[in-house]
Amino acid sequence: MTYEESSVLITGASQGIGRSIALGFAAATSRPLILLARNSDNLLETSELCYKAGATLVHTVACDATSPDELSNITIPENVPEPSVLINNAGSFLYRTVTETSNEEFQKQIDVNLFTAVNTINRFLPGLRKMHRALIINICSVGSLRGLADSGAYSAAKHALLGYTRSLRDELQNTDIGVSAINLGQTHSPSWDASEMSPDRLINPSDVAKLLVTLSELSPRSLVEEITIQPQHGRVPPM
Questions:
Q1: Average pLDDT of the residues in 56-81
Q2: Which helix (H) or strand (E) holds 134?
Q3: Which tens digits make up the pLDDT trace of 76-108?
Q4: Calpha distance 146→158 (Å, rounded)
Q5: What angle do CA 42, 45, 49 make, to 5 degrees?
Q6: How many C-beta atoms lie closer than 10 Å to residue 27's C-beta?
Q7: How far apart are CA 31 and CA 35, in angstroms?
Q8: 3-class DSSP state for residue 53?
Q9: What is the architecture, at CATH level 2, of domain 3-229?
Q10: Burial profile 57-74: b = 16 or more Cβ within 10 angstroms, e = fewer
Q11: pLDDT digits (tens, 9 = 90+) for 147-176
């Protein structure tokens, strides 16, 4: 199986940015898709939209990626090619100052924003090592690069994800597995539904999808290690 024939696995694909990424690959490539998230109903909806967009094969996995045990029990059907592209998009945003965040809330931010990626990579890395080429893309945040007074636990968790991503890239540098970090600014998604922000001020998630498709199609001689995407006019208040 060639790199181009292998599948793309996307976590957090049931809605928002993850759904947009899945639709982007469905429309622009013929790659099979593996969509992973907790909400099976929303996953089914994403799958149907992907088929309408042009997907040739979509396999959904309802799984809590914060649980290494659930991930270890995942089996990929024989008719679905193994993934050579992992896109770790699953995440959770908490709009709360770090001093007002409970230990339980803090731990949840770490679990969802860091360990979903760690657990998913641990589950699929042995298979990636067997590929003649593979790519891991972790969706980090501009909050990975600086502290955020209004969402400190989220920022801390995303700092950890970026540190993990950079360390993994360094570890795998002499293999055929590339590792990229996307430091994403405010992007339109259900996270902002309760706010008064205009979607027109936020990053279009379809632009994120186009970028990830492009990264997956670079020659094996090139790797985008890290990239930051921001709204054109900067951070949108009040967040």
A1: 96
A2: strand 134-139
A3: 999 999 999 999 999 999 999 999 999 999 999
A4: 10
A5: 140
A6: 16
A7: 12
A8: helix
A9: 3-Layer(aba) Sandwich (3.40)
A10: bbbbbbbbbbeeebbeee
A11: 999 999 999 999 999 999 999 999 999 999
